[in-house]
Amino acid sequence: MIHKGQAIPAATLSELTDAGMVSHSTDDLFANKRVVLFAVPGAFTPTCSEAHLPGYVVHADQIKAAGIDTIACVAVNDAFVMHAWGEAQNASEILMLGDGNASFTKALGLEMDTADFGGIRSQRYAMVVDNGVVTHLNVEKASAFEVSNAETILDALKA
After folding, report:
1. If DSSP codes are grouped into helix, strand and coil, which group holds residue 86?
2. Catalytic positions, please?
3. Which of 49, 82, 83, 144 could covalently link to 98 via disulfide, CB atoms 3.0 to 4.6 Å apart?
């Protein structure tokens, strides 16, 4: 599993924009920027839709005011699903990224097998990445939602 002080691995994530499909390399996403990246097990799932993403939507301005250039959400879903979920959640300030084949999630070592629920998914986590290097990482215990929420990350940014 990735740790604080390590570089984000090279991977490609997808985003559906008004101009069409965009492939983002992690090198470009994180270079010379300070990014909050959070991951959810799946778009449109209960905790993800009722608490995780909405918290980042509500606190986006405060997070950016704390020195963050980009807030990004990633899930092992395709870019079409992530785009639809972002629209449904009014997440216009959040970069909604699809990791459809879980290659990024696996490179981070943060995958989990949910078996009948959906197969390989991401663990729930949040991290701060400064110029491609992880400076803060909170990974949730199984079925928990305590340390990857927007409020906890905002508190860490203010510390």
Report:
1. helix
2. 48
3. 82
Fold adopted by 12-158? Glutaredoxin (3.40.30)
DSSP 7: B
Length of the chain: 159
pTM listed for this prediction: 0.97
Pairing state of beta strands 70-75 and 133-139? unpaired
State the amino acid at position 32 in one-letter form: N
Task: Give the separation between CA 87 and CA 96, rounded to whole angstroms.
Answer: 10
Nearest CA to 44 out of 32, 31, 53, 56 is that of: 53
143 touches 5 (CB < 8 A): no
pLDDT tens figures, 46-67: 999 999 999 999 999 999 999 9
End-to-end CA distance of the chain: 25
Per residue in 148-159, pLDDT (tens digit) is: 999 999 999 998
The three-state secondary structure class of 89 is coil
